[in-house]
Structure formats: structure tokens, C-alpha cells
Design a protein that fits this description.
A: two-stranded antiparallel sheet, 16 helices, 2 strands, globular, B: Immunoglobulin-like, Cytochrome Bc1 Complex, Chain D, domain 2, 5-stranded mixed beta sheet, 6 helices
Amino acid sequence: MARVVHPARHYLNDGYGISSWLLTRDHKRIALLYLAAVTFFFFVGGAMAVMIRLELATPVGDLVTDETYNKLFTMHGVMMVFFFLIPVIPAVLGNFLVPIMIGAKDLAFPKINLLSWYIYIIGGLFTLYALIAGGVDTGWTFYTPFSTVASTTNVVPTALGIFITGFSSILTGLNFIVTIHRMRAPGMTWFRMPLFLWSTYATSLINVLGTPVIAITVLLVAAERVFHFGFFDPRVGGDPVLFQHLFWFYSHPAVYIMVLPAMGVISELVAAGCRKPVFGYSFVAFASLAIAVLGFLVWGHHMFVAGESVYSALIFSILSFLVAIPSAVKVFNWTATMYKGSVSWETPMLYAYGFIGLFTIGGLTGLFLAAIAVDVHVTDTYFVIAHFHYIMVGGTIMGYLGGLHYWWPKISGRLYNEGLAKLSAGIIFVGFNLTFFPQFVLGYLGMPRRYHAYPPEFQVLNVLSSAGASILGVGYLIPMVYLMWSLRYGRVAGSNPWGAVGLEWTTSSPPPTENFAETPVVTWDPYEYPAADLEGHVA
Amino acid sequence: MWTGTPLFPESASTIATRVDLLYFFLLAVSIFFSLLIAGSIVFFAVKYQRRRRDAIGEQIHGSMILEIAWTGIPFLITMVIFVWGASVYFAMARPPDETLNIYVVGKQWMWKFQHLDGQREINELHVPVGRAVKLITTSEDVIHDFFVPAFRMKADVIPGRYVSIWFQPTKPGRYHLFCAEYCGTRHSGMIGEVVVMEPSEYQAWLSGGAPEGSLASTGAKLFADLACNTCHRPDAQGRGPVLEGLFGKTVRLQSGETVTVDEAYVRESILTPSAKITAGFQPIMPTFQGLVTEEQLLALIEYVKSLHGLPQVESR
């Protein structure tokens, strides 16, 4: 067995001091800059979720005022969606992995990559300013005419923050598309790429095509507030529902921006966790593209009760059912990958099990919402809240945490405490289900979302949900501790601690600044596990 | 603590049971697939657990038959759900011919109801059991949403538009009414109750008092007060179109297009008269934007509806 050594020279010790980080063009260091920033926003958004759940432990509005409560759920949504869920996997794991997985030295445009981070930070500062200046109370959806004529809070700075941050998504997306097209190592054909890259590519397409729409939409809201144009004001011939079309034209595909990268991570985790190729590789790859394309055609299902015509509703309903199919195909393929695998029970695989289970429930409950007659009853209730948290928290965050644990030894060169990691994965799974499952029941009972106070018969289910949230919160804090601890005290990982295949496991951990000593030449298919060679791979 | 904690909502309208049936089908499909996936994962994870550190899995790449099966079967199931969901939705969207009409105006943060007989209510709506009720809704300010969980009925109440929804209650009782579209500070206080009564009780409630007369008569008075009647005269001699018998008809516009006279068109013609001029008339009518409230508009509309060629006959 090969001796595990820490490399003498790697990207983390290639230059010290603040400027070596803030002016870096190394995609791996930029990934870590993003890691710090998104983690900050995650805990800010998470703190608001804690306040929301504490308030909802009792049916009367007693902990905070209605005004504060409305600001809490608005800022929770804005922070989590635009500053955590959308960037998290592409900007952290994608930035770190895209060049390494294709055998390149860096992204195609390293300076633009750094620029993306600064744009993200500037957008974030606008939004933090809005928070400190008194918050905003429109909901993260900014529905007009409430956001344009009725709200008296900081709508404009928040809108500008989202507008600015959008450019960071666009530039990162563009960078990934060009890099994947132009910088693949010799022999790295499209169908030899890891599935994480297929889903990153699909996500980047949505980012580049969709983000300009939300940018223009929030800009129109800001302009209407300042200049009173009347685009969305029925009193002067505008249409408030037009805003919803524009908003969801981006924001429904944005759901796939959040979950597609997580699906890519899961493909990697399942392949490595079973040491075999992902079942139906090309079906999983094309499912990502199908989701990206179909995802643009379903926005109208957010408006079944918003005065949409019966026939529009039918079209959006059937298209919404169609977009469920590629997601189902992925779930079946991941499950089938486990058949006759060498199935690991290590932490990354636990997150993969969690993802598949929770995403399945999230996806199936999406069918309830696509069925128009049922949607009429459950839309704008806690059923929807539960559904999209199963996708975004159960899906995206489980995928992200699984990926972070899987690639942490590569990023840091060290191993974390496996026992604590398994424990916190279990706590997160239990806490998550206790938080969000009761919300499905509440939703069908008819509890509307964004309610500061609610009828007393809903209390028991709300108390269960709040209890679950406190467990979930603990589950998210534990990895912060042991991952930080591992940076200094963790066992040295070696280049391939999981015995996995993939270019990232052929270079040292942490990798050198230029990623590979010499450009690799790829002669093998993805996830090809050569029985004979493996002994040398396993640390 | 669990006593009084419902796990399933009351079903109190004709549509509710149809929605619930589809919901149970969806639940069955969901439970089946969740158990299939979760069961397979647990089974494979135990059966094929890695036993040697360097063991690899069997190198299987896929199966076209399986791919076709798990693309095709979910597709067929979703199409069944689609057709089922759409057919129930058609029933929701199409009110029967004979309905009891009530106007609803939402505003931050209350619900105002206007019965045709003249009764007005706030945050409480009385209706008889067993009769189809059509609500014609609009908003004074931002978007609200009229949601009665027990009826499985929900619709956005949109400023500048009239959205109609209908329901037929099947059980007397008091049911939650929620605003389901976030509308500002006291959104969660924009709640009320729908009181479903036996027909006899409802009649008693109706006769309890309508101090101002019917909605159409209020509209008639307003029609005179605003001097609408100087131009809109029943004898075709006025400068504006004759309104008698107009509602529900199709009229030809100056532009050559045609339009059906419904609530939205009457509203638009009062607030933005120049938008759609009837062929043969001059655009001389002044706007009443800002001069009439949403509720006065509804009274005027109801008055126009009541003009069936014989101005004195009211219809319900």
C-alpha cells in the first residue's frame, strides 16, 4: 500500500497574506473565497429561519411583531435563494472541480472568475445594507403591486443587490461553458466527462439564459417604485400579473439552477460510493439537459390561481408533468447503480442516500402541484413550503454537504472525524424530516404560508416543525466544528482516500496551483474501476 | 395536546370530495414510489455493503429495457394524473347557469361582501347550503387571495380585474376564510368565516335587514347622482349608447373589433371610457377614475345588468 504523504507544494501554501487570497486567480482559492461567503449568508438566512420557527411555536403572534415577522421570512428567502442556494454548488464545488475534472490548469477566464466573486460580494453588501437599514417585507417573490406601491420598506436596495449578484451567476456560467467546451484535456471527450460536469454545464446554460430576465424584472420593480412608470399598476393600465410571468420565467428555472448541480454531485457520490459506473450514464447526462430545457417552459404553474386562463393552465400543467420525468429517470438510475455495487457506508454516501430519499418525496409532491385541481387547494399553503424545502434543503443542501464531505480531503488535504460526520448526517436527516413533513399535513389542512398568527388547531403540527428545526440547526453547526478542526488536526488524506476514479483523485491533495504536474491524457471511460489497479489507489 | 388536532380538512363543498379523491390517488402513487426507492436503497446498501477495503462493484453500464420502462411508466402515470386534475379543474372553472351572485372586495386587510339584495358584510359571508354561489371578486389595492380550505377553493383577488369563482356548500357550518396571497403587514389578520346556513335560516338572515335597498337600486341612484343618465338614455336619443338590454350582448367597436359586455368591460368603460368606443359614438365621456370606489363600481355594474330593456324590472 502506497505511503500517504502531504505534498510539499500545493495551492494553499503557494503564497501567504490577504492579498494572495483577495487578488488570486486560482480557481481553487476563489472556490474557498466563495465557501466563506456562502457559509456566512447560510448562517444569516438560517438565523432568520430560527426566528420564524420560534414565532410559529405558538398560534398568536407574540415573539416578534407582524412587521418584523414579514421581514424575517422575506430576508430568509432572499438570503437563502439568491446568496446561498443559487451560487453554492457551482461557485464552491464547481469552481474547485470543473478545471480539475477535465484536466485543465484553471478556468478559461481566471480574472473574470475573481470578478464574479467581487460582484457577488457587492450584491451581498447591498442586500445586507437593506437588512441593516430596516429590512424589506415583500416576500422574496416581490409581487406587484404590493412591492411597487404598498410596501414602505427597503425594496430598492434589495432589488439592486439581486440585480448585481445576477451578473456573478452569468459570468460564472459563461466561464464554465467556455471552459468545458475549450479546455478539456486530450482524450477527455464529452462522454468521458463526469456527470457532475454535465449537470454543471446544464446549470450554466440556465444561468446565462435566465438570469438576465430576473435582473430586468427586479430593475423594473425598482424603477416603478422610483419613477412610477406604471408597468404593473392597474390604475394606469398596467398589469400586476405581468410581473409574476417575468419573475417565474427566471425563478422556476432557478429551482433547477439549485438542484441540478446537487444531482451532479450525487452522481459522483453514488459512483464512488459503489465503485462502479453510474447506471445509464447517457440517460442521466441527457436528463440534465432535458431538465434545463423543459424547466424554461413551466413557469405558468405558479399562477394557476392568479387569473390564468383555463387553457394556459392546461398547457403549463402537462409541461410540468413532463419535467418530472427526467428527474425520475435520474432517481431510478442512481438506485440501480447500487445494484451489485461495492456499497460504502461512509459519510458522503449517507448524504447520497438522504438526497435520493428526500428528493424523491420532494419530486413526488411536485406532482400534486402540477395537478391543477389539487394545486388550487394547496398552492400558497405550507404544502408548497414543505415541497420546495424537500427539494432545496433535502436536495440541494444534502447534495452540497455530501459533496463537501467527499471532496474535503481533496480541498484541504486532511480527513475529518468520520464518527462525528456520520452523527451529524443522521441528525440533519431526522431534523429535516421532523421540520418539514408536518408542513405537508398543515398545507392540506389549509394553513396559508407567510402567516404570523394562525388558528389554534394548527399548533401541534407547528410545534413539531419548530422542534425539528432546532435539531436541524444543531446538525448544521456540527460540521462547521469538525471541518475546521480537521484543517489543522485531521489525518493526512493522501491523493485518493476513497479509492475513487476521476482525474481529481490522480493529483495530490491539496492539488498544486497548476492542478497537475503534467497535462493528463484520458484513455478511459468515466467511472471505469479497473480491478487490478485498485489496490494501489486505496490509501 | 393532540385532541382537537385535525390531520385532514373538512370537506364541505361538492368539489371538495372530487379534489380529495385525486389527492388520495396521488398519495398512493407517492407512497408506492417512495417505498420502492427507499426500500431498494436500504436493501442494496445492506446486501452489497463493501466488505473488503479494495472491493469494486460489478461493472454494469445500464439497460435499455429498464430505461424505457422507467421513462414510460412514470410518463403514463403522470398523464393519468394530468387528465384527472384537468377534468376536476374544468368543473371548478365553470359555474352552473343558475348561481347566487355575491360581490367580494378585498382590501388591506379585510374582506367586504356585497349581496345583491343590499346586505353588506365584513369578514363574514352568509350563504345557503346546497346552492351554487358565484363570487365576483376584485381588490381595492394589492393582490389578495380568497381561500376557503373546506371548499378546496382558492383564487387570487386582483386589482383592476373581476375574477369569478364558484362553490356549492354541502354542509351547514362555519368555515375558515383565509387571505392566501401575501398582502402586507396584517396579512395573517385578513381572515374571516363563511357561514353556511340551512335555506330557511338563510332566508331569515336575508330578511334581517337591507337598509339601503338592493345593490341595483343603489346603482340606479348613483347613476342619477353622477349624471350618467344625461347621455345614457333609454330612448336612443342620448349621446352615449343605450344601456338597456346591453349586458351580455356583443357590441361592435369603432376599431371594427367586437367585445362582449361583461363586468370587466363595463368597469373599463367607466374608468377608461376612451379605451373601447362603441361604433357610431364620439369619445366624449369623461373618466370616472378616482371618483367612484370599487364598491360603487359594483353597484353601477349591477344596475347595468338589471336593465333588461324594461328599466323597472330587477333580476337576480
